Amino acid sequence: MNNGKKNRIKLRRSQKVKKFGQKLYLCASNFQNNTLWESSASCSFGFMFSFIPLSLIILTFLVGIFKISPGLVNYALTFAEEIQSIINIRPLIDNLLQTKGFKIMDVILGLWIVWMARKLFLSIMQGMTKIFRTVSKRKNIFNQLIVFISEFLIVLVIAAILIFSFVLNQLVSSQAFDSVREYFPDIVNQNSHMIVTSVMYFVIYVCTVLVYRVISGTKPPAFLCFFYALLNILTFLVISYAINKFVNFNRYNFVYGTISTLVILMMRVYFFFVFFWFYAQMIYVSQFFDTLLLSEIYLLPSNETKGLLPAFRRMMFVNPSALKTRDNTKFYKAGDIIFRKGENADCIYYLRKGEVVEETENQSVHHYPGDFIGEVQCIQNQIRPGDTVAVKDSKLLMFTKEEFLDLMQKSPKAAIKAISKISEETASLYITDSDD
Questions:
Q1: Judging by beta carbons within 10 Å of its beta carbon (0-12, 13-18, 19+), is residue 226 exposed, middle or buried?
Q2: What is the pLDDT of residue 399?
Q3: What percent of the chain has pLDDT above 90?
Q4: Which of 38, 146, 338, 427 is most buried, most CB within 10 Å of its CB?
Q5: What is the mean predicted confidence (pLDDT) over 258-265?
């Protein structure tokens, strides 16, 4: 839904704030409707079932290819503390170091481990399908291929990061960097995690951008992907800091014993994916904001509907300034005729402010802010059944038939409401004809 983006009416500051609030509401509403809390939990469990097998594959890759450099193996092990608290990998390393070369069975077992570690990636694909919907158009075999390739790429990338970090640490340990080590000992210390952690976060950022941009299937603007991926990383860093600051790890070690590290790690991963999905949903809302906003105002509850949530929705959306353009914004004074009986119903009106009345042979229907006027006749290519006149000074937005059909295609709830109104009007005409 383009809706004349080049002819947009510039929003005031208060209207921009309201537009941002509308985006947040639409994001939160869709987040809940898409059950992304459950997707976050699924990805968290999937991470644990994928994390250990992939870690073993990475270590196998490093030891098998670079066993000529024991320093690299030892360096990799210094960054496996959390893995070792979950599973003892030292026997695996010792066995790999004694192996002279890879056999065909080793390759088959490696492929099998990667295949069994698909849970995380499949969960991500399913979550993106819920949000962007277009992903479901891809064939299942294509999704499986993406998952398989992604896992191999992650193995190679993480291995490359460890190798790069090892080489960099060896470099800064030389005499040429003595003065640097004196002023920045924590950065160049070989036992420091800062370098590899920074690179890891960068890789996570790049992977997040690619998922938002490619896996979504809707090709959202690149700046949205970069921006929300950055927010995701920054939010996760804040959450991680809060966990380290306020969680009593000794208490959980006492309660959960050896699996305490696993519990805390799963909590971190869960929060990461909560924000990962939230920002993915924000990308979808930003990309299709016009259509989602039109859907929201079409589904607004009436003034007679009681409750805090219906009242809040009307307050937030009854005046959708973000949809205004110079072409679709219409002003009528009291007594002005908006359209006459017998005219082609080639557009649909939305009443933003004021009051109008539809005068037909059988009845007079008054419309108030939040009402749509003439959508049934427009959808069915009919003529106007009567004159429509402004009772008070009124402001209306005008939408084309194409925009409304696009709304019905993308919003099942809007389509159901439109069909229901068509059925009601058809039934009323049938009853009137029967009475005659």
A1: middle
A2: 92
A3: 24
A4: 338
A5: 67
| Residue closest to 414 by CA, chosen among 285, 300, 310, 290 | 300
How far apart CA 308 and CA 259 sit, in angstroms, is 44
The pair of three-digit structure tokens given for residue 420, joined into one six-digit string: 């229901």
Both structure tokens of 271: 């929060």
Q: Which two tokens stand for residue 327?
A: 């072409």
* Predicted local confidence at residue 360, as pLDDT: 80
- What does the block give as tokens for 174? 């030389």
0.90 cut: is pTM over it? Answer: no
Of 121, 145, 125, give the one whose Cα is nearest residue 135. Answer: 125
